[in-house]
Specification:
With 98 residues, this protein is of the alpha+beta class. The chain contains four helices and three strands. The chain has a domain at 5-48 and 55-71. The longest helix is centred in the first third of the chain and has 8 residues, at 5-12.
Length: 98
Amino acid sequence: MNDYDALRDYLKKQKLPEFVLSFDQIEEIIDAALPRAAQRASWWETLRSPQEKMPQREACLAGGYIATRQADGKSVRFKRVTHTTSRPRERGDTRGAS
């Protein structure tokens, strides 16, 4: 179990298509402090560098959401992944290709 499994489980239970959590709320969910790097937008953004496997990004995707740090630098918007919002295929991945 990694630090972000609790976040994944929390996200899986959510019904809203989109919502915002403060860093404090996220820290309560994971029962740990977020690292300083969490203040950077790139730390959260799932689609920016999909080849980088980062546990917080993987937890969000596994929970069915894409995360984006908000401009206030202290909260994150979670938006449900839909069929039109999916992770790009990695180079060489031919699944689903015709």
